[in-house]
Description:
Distance between the termini of chain B: 47 Å
Strand order of the largest sheet of chain A: 1-3-4-6-7-8-9-12-13-16-17-18-19-21
Radius of gyration of chain A: 23 Å
Strand order of the largest sheet of chain B: 6-1-7-8-15
Number of domains of chain B: 2
CATH architecture of chain A: Beta Barrel
Number of domains of chain A: 1
Structural class of chain B: alpha/beta
Shape of chain B: globular
Largest interface: A-B, 68 and 56 residues
Number of helices of chain A: 3
Oligomer: heterodimer
Organism (chain B): Hymenobacter ruricola
Radius of gyration of chain B: 26 Å
CATH superfamily of chain A: Outer membrane protein transport protein (OMPP1/FadL/TodX)
Keywords (chain B): Signal
Number of helices of chain B: 14
Largest sheet of chain A: 14 strands, antiparallel, barrel
Mean pLDDT of chain B: 88
Largest sheet of chain B: 5 strands, parallel
Mean pLDDT of chain A: 91
Signal peptide (chain B): 1-26
Low-confidence stretches of chain B: 390-397
Number of strands of chain B: 17
Amino acid sequence: MRARLLFLLPLFSGLTAAATGFDTGPQGARVLGLGGASTAYIGSIAGLSTNPGLLPQWGDSLTRLSFGGFGQIRRASFVGQDTYLRTNQDLTVQPGGYLYATRAVSKRVSVGLALNTPYGYHTKWPNAWEGRSVIQESQLSTFFAQPTVGFKLNDNFSLGVGFVYAYGKYTQRRALGQYDDPAAQANLSSSGSGYGVNAGLYGRTGDNLAFGISYRSGVKLKMNNGAYTTAGVPGRDASLLAGASDFKTQINLPSTLSVGIADRVTKKLLLTFDFALSGWSTLDSLTLDVAASGPVPAQRLRTARRYEDALAFRVGTEYQVNSKLVLLAGLHYDETPVRDEFVNPEFVDANRVGASAGLSYQLSQRLAVEAAYAFDYGQLRTARADQTRFLVSNVSGTYRTLSHTASLGVSAAF
Amino acid sequence: MNYFFPKGLRWAGLAAGTALLLNACAPGQDTPTPVVGLNVSSYLAVGDTYTAGVSNGGLTRTSQEYSYPNLLARQFQSASAGGSFVQPLFDGAEGSNRAVFRGFTPEGFLQTQRVPGTAVRRTVLLANACTTTPDTLRLLKRSATAGTLPQNLGVPGLLLSQVDAVGLGNEASVGIRAFNPYFERLLPASDSRTYFQALSTAAQSATFFSYFLGMDEFMPYVRSGGTCGAVPSSRQMKLTAKRILDVLTANKRPGIIVKLPAITTIPLLRQGKGTDVEARLQAYYKDNAPLYIETPFVPGTSQRITERDYILATALPRLGKPTPVVVGGTTLMLPYGRDSRNPIVNADVLDDTSEIVYITAAINDYNNAVFVNSTTVLGLSGLAKAYGLPIIDPAQNSYLLDAGFLFNNVANSISVGGVVYSAEPVRGNFFSTDFYSLTPRGNGLLANAFISAINRAYRSNIPSLDVNDLPTTTE
């Protein structure tokens, strides 16, 4: 049975890139413990946002609810290529949360709602670090709401479709290092929203083997209310840098195509495998259309990102210790969408290997607590800034990234 | 995200986050160990304006501390290989006359303000051979290092043709012979030693040298718009360079020889690139009037400026301002340079055909002349090869630093750690208000160019400076 699905492997083996970027990882304590391999996993309704096709699998008489919070620490260190100075990123916790609910409305039709925070990062460098004129602090937070409807085709197959509303907030701060005043800074702040769809299919090819395929479209966060402010600009340059101006921008969040299988090896042991392809290549650049302000004319500030599509590979396992306790573990390998030529301190990313562990404990028949922790270790990245390309703001050096994610949640059925 | 979720969830997230704090050390990375592959314990810097650390047209205690040799010596010390580096420092906040930034004119031209030197001890007016206005010579307070000679032998305004001038640093020469007040303050009173003799003495205790001489040789000619004297003879410059380098490289003493940058990368000329200025004035006056210069070799006629003619930056603010011109017996007020009957005079411009090409040829010859046959007078490249110091890359004499590369890049703008450096004085953060000398950051970039050359040539690992940490001005 398992061999039949091996046809999926060559489909992805030709791709050299992956799914990390600034996604915040699996959106639920239990799927986090599983390493995120949840496209064909029905052990937690958090799978709703990964694969809406799972929804009818919870189409019994119960209303299910799962919610929790998580925190993610991504931290990088930097060593300057020529200065040999080492800088550690400041410690920041990117908070996140999730809430899922499902309910059957008929024998064949179920509805569900997913609220979560799938993308985001918070980069904070010390104010006086070597690359302070490139970036001091940058944060993106997103919030996704996905009302979903699922249909059971027959006993073995089901599909689901969800509508995605996304909201995002982006802030950025950097030093204006051309001036002596260490307080001279440029700040960006904006927020906006976008839409997308999510559709998926779930099927069982036997008692022990299940598969899932899902596709979530990309989301374009249109941010039209941006505020670009500067501080500490000497009067002689008032005609070059405005104190405050408006800007518009758009941040493209990637589409994801996920394929997964789940195999019940024994009664107590479940193995899951996932491939996910994220369409990061829609994130080509960060383009700010800054409006005119006073003597400063309107301008377009463009920072190339040139992300490439990225693939992630995940393996998870779930072991039922006893009737109350489930242990979870996972491994994953995520390639980065950030190309070598575009390694930039605003968002440092690398190919990462990670491991995760978690547990679910049944407090009562209706209520379980879930907790999980994941650790990612990133490959060393080298940024080489070409000084003569003076429109490109970057700093030369090497980066090492680690990330820690922990999640705590509750799931209930009643 | 906080407002999207009920408080309970936030607490759950925070609790999870707090648990992580205990576990979240920053990822480790080894920093390279500094290695200095040669003996830099006693560094001798030989040069002129740039080496002395002039900034904003003058030398002060602060500008001396940000001279590139001092920044370089600091990096040697931080790599725990450098000894002390003695400079002829002024006392306290003292310094010579200079011109500091005041603002920009409505047309966007730089305005400066004179600051009198506090280290001036005597002022003498001397006749100038080329103009009717006399030169003001200011003698400066003697350096505390005068007894022994400092390690920074950079002398502002030092000409290669004067290195053998007897009494160049003796007050008795004033008004009689060649005299340099900056050299005078390095020597004891009434000392008639030549620069060459002083350099030979100082070289005896040096373990490493840098040589960056020659730019100042061209500046009197350039500043006069080509109206005072002739283009310096590169043959004489090369012969003098060889004599100095023979002394500096004695006993296989390692060092770095600096090739001169192209003259048009200096903002005194770069800011006045003919067609750029023409376009800038057309944009300001919202018309399309061309700029005219006096036709070289044909007095009384004018021709349109080209992109290879360079107006002196000091003359730029006068362009377009009406000046009286006699046309056919009547006096008309015509915009300076923007009318064919009122062209930019020769003293305000270095034209391509009769001036720029000769200066460029002289600099190229001084920089690049290599061995052809036994009668060849070697330039810096040829000399560098002849001294048989280690060659890492045959295409690039690694112990030869091409300052032109840095200066040329700056002329086209570079970005260093997110900060853009350009040839525009003040705003460009590389050149200072005199359109010639460097800011502390400019000195930092030059010191970094030395470091990368030393690292290449002498298999070293000396850390560079974070130039954005240096001040933008010495004032």
